[in-house]
Specification:
about 375 residues; alpha/beta; three-stranded mixed β-sheet; 14 helices; 12 strands; flat
Length: about 375
Amino acid sequence: MALQCGIVGLPNVGKSTLFNALSSAKAESANYPFCTIEPNVGVVTVPDPRLKILEELVSPQRVLPTIMEFVDIAGLVRGASKGEGLGNQFLANIREVDAIVHVVRCFEDPNVIHVDGKVSPVLDKETIDTELQLKDLESIEKKQQRAQKMAKSGDKNAQKELALVEKIKAHLEEGKNVRALELDEDEKNAIAELCLLTMKPVIYVANVEETAIHTGNAHVDALKEAIKDENAQIIVVSASIEEQIAALEDPEERAMFLEEYDLKESGLDQLIRASYNILGLITYFTAGEKEVKAWTIKKGYKAPQAAGVIHSDFERGFIRAEVIKIPDYQQYKTENAIKEAGKLHVEGKEYVVADGDVMHFRFNV
């Protein structure tokens, strides 16, 4: 399931530094705009302590975590919706991703140029919001014109669609993102084809100086106030710290470094998990002597759909799923002991997979 999060932000906010820390796909990082011209894609593993638990219980030959893709997208400037700077490219790239990681500069440093000459995270956020909203307005107005023609003929569905489009248009014209507008599932499906940029889920990353990693600062407070009505998450990181952590390959050295900064985990681990969750993803596991593997599925998948992620034959010929909960695995240690204790659950086609299920599928093709 190749879902992607796009890392966006104004030039020189720390996007590429953050991306470099996220993955081994190194983007050029420089103190001038547009150093990232083509989007760079990095594949990262999703941190999950449950894999370690299963590894210790099963002793497999290998362990395969689940993964996510992050795309480092070229920096945007004011006027991008009209093609300024690399605007057209930026907007095309962001349309293709499933969620947005919006990096916002919340640090002062006279040695790092700000594209607008001063540090103001709220204005930075509004600059990008405005460009995305203007692009969404273009899409909505085209949809409105089509719906108006159909509605004039008395088409009730077109009339309903026109009312929805006009509601969204008014919302955008107020300078608000579509994700902040309450829409039911039918309404969301009705506009899904438009791939509206401001409808995509977003995580704000406040990039702060090292001394503000625990306490935040006035810039972070201002950003939190600005996004309070968006139902969006904010994560505070220091990109420079994260880059140093990522450079340490030895787990013990990483642990010592984190302890030195009084951190329980890296900000990037928080970001990866938050991105995973915002996309509505969960993990189930398969566990055997050959491998323990984490599988990514959408929340709400039933057992046959989950089986299909492994192979289409598993879904087509699905018979049943044998499910073990990790706490039961921890208590009884072996699959045989779990069966004897009556803790191995046999589930059919209507079973909704839960996050953390350890599953074995029976099928016949």
